[in-house]
Amino acid sequence: MRPPTPAPPAVPEPEPVGPSELLPSVEPPTAVEAQPGSAGQLFWRRLRRHRLALISIVVLALLAIACFGAGLFAPYGRDEQNLALGAVGPSWQHWFGTDELGRDQLSRLLYAGQISLEIGLAVALLSTLVGTVIGAVAGYLGRATDQTLMRLTDLFLVVPAVAVLAIALKKFGHDRFTIIWVLAALFWMYVARVVRAQVLSIKEQDYVEAARASGASGAWIIVRHVLPNCVGPIVVNATLSVAAAIVAESTLSFLGFGIQIPATSWGRMLADAEGTVGTSQSYLLYFPGLAILLTVLAVNFLGDGLRDAFDPQRGDA
Amino acid sequence: MLNLVGRRALYSVPVILIASFLTFAFVRATFDPTAKLRQSRESASAIRAERVRLGLNKPLVDQYGSWLGRFLRGDWGTSERTHEAVTAQIGRALGNTTQLVVWGVLVAAVIAVGIGVYSALRQYSLLDYTFTGLTFLGLALPPFWFGLIAIEFLAVGPKQWFHLSDPPLFFIGLHSGGGGILDYARHLVLPVMTLTVQIVAGWSRYQRSSMLDVMSSGYIRTARAKGVPRRRVVLRHGLRNALVPLVTVMALDIGALFGGLIITEKIFSVPGMGKLFIDSLLAGDATTLTAWLVVTAAFIVAFNLLADVAYGWLDPRVRVA
């Protein structure tokens, strides 16, 4: 995650850390904030203080390396069967056990993670790009464009999302590219709403007024003055939508409308293991669920840390 | 106040109308009602005749118009899956889902308000941190996984450990008729718990921050300064005001639950709206799906309206805006 390159106006206020005696682990905040530094440096300093966010970055990086490097790290192939072995619980040969076809669950989990993470990242990226452009234009132009966008998103927010996604996947197919753009087609609206709200308040600022007075075009103002100041909310939102997309994909796959065999994702693995509840093979249930839980937890902590790092004024919520 | 209700209600009408049109078009574009005929290799003329009979040769807007007319008169068509009236199907499903929603919301609201108030009054205490940690866990837990794990550890597991003939908590369907209140509760505990875990995390967080806001406001200081007993300050001055934003959020969330329990109902085989949706989607039952989407959208719109009205009623300052 890079700090915003076009520096937003540095905020001179010290971070309101609340009653400081209650947060003993934090170094004296005023001393740190008093040091001069670019907005980027301030951002890193604040993020570093968020220990959970840092741990999350490490966890996510390890997960990503393990999953995308599954070809190197996975002890067995994704579909490598061992029918003679069958289903055995976790052991030294098979850390996470095997299913009834003797497939190593750790290896499958890593390969499945590729798809889950890929969908999460791609959906977040795509929806953030589209949502930012549309939200910024709508917020900046206002009036008819804005009204159209808001009413459109209102419409989509009144129909249950999982239902719409399931029908859409039924219509358009189940391969992962379809899943990515179908999810992104729904997710961009949340981004657009966030960006629009942000732009609405920024466009009233004096520096935007000044840019307009000195003859800058609308597009220039949006790109150069408005968007750099929305980077915080956009990045935080993008981070959180990675988690939301992973959960959405696993939900759809669990229902059977998402990833189809032979490909597999964490949700799909859980769908396959659903029947093992209460049997001796119920260990098949634990690991895919834990993988989703761990990823989403780490992404949420990271999002929280980023939010605080971008916006020091934001209090506890 | 009436003005506010009227204005919001008026806005809801076009929203639900346009949403229903889009839904209708979406389902129509996804499912071909003549697919069965095509599969059975009927002649082209037979298929054409069927299309004319179903009105599929007319423009989409005309089809929507006649569908809407029938829908408003209470004729929602016949399910292509069960050959039963869609109204009856949805009515039954709604009854079951409503039971889950009512119990889930009651339990979640009590727990969330309790946790929120405690965490706000004892901010940064050990329990506050514990609740915060649990909240993060709750927000990250995929509901379907939690449901499965709950079955494993609370229903099937204990049955095997204690060699019971019945699991202590049932995890299939709702009550089976006999057995009275105990049977009813044993069927309900697991799905309601799964639902509660999903919503309690967000609500308790919300209640905590709104209670913190309220407790640091001027009128609380005033109340304390003039010697109002602490209990009364917390309950009358604090909690009553802190509940206002939570009620709004609750109304919004409850509206979404009627069509949002697809996963929970699938895991526990509860014959509610979520199960009806999956069954209809798998069978390509377009008539039921259209009605299902419109009904769930109507719930969301209605509860959005309720949230606005409740907010205006509880907080008179909003009414002017």
Q: What does this entry look like structurally?
A:
The complex is a heterodimer of chains A (317) and B (321). Chain A is mainly α and 317 residues long. Chain A has a single domain, classed as MetI-like fold. Chain A is 66% helix and 0% strand. Chain A contains 13 helices and no strands. Helices cover 78% and strands 0% of the residues of chain B. Chain B is built from 14 helices and no strands. Chain B has helices at 2-30, 35-39, 44-54, 60-72, 86-121, 126-140, 143-161, 180-215, 218-225, 230-257, 262-267, 273-283, 286-314, 317-320. The model of chain B has no long low-confidence stretch (mean pLDDT 87).
Main interface by residue count = A-B, 43 and 50 residues
Which radius of gyration of chain A do the C-alpha atoms yield? Answer: 23 Å
Q: What is the typical, i.e. mean, pLDDT of chain B?
A: 87
Number of helices of chain B: 14
| Count of structural domains of chain A | 1
Low-confidence residue ranges of chain B: none
Mass-distribution shape of chain B: flat
Secondary-structure element series of chain B: HHHHHHHHHHHHHH
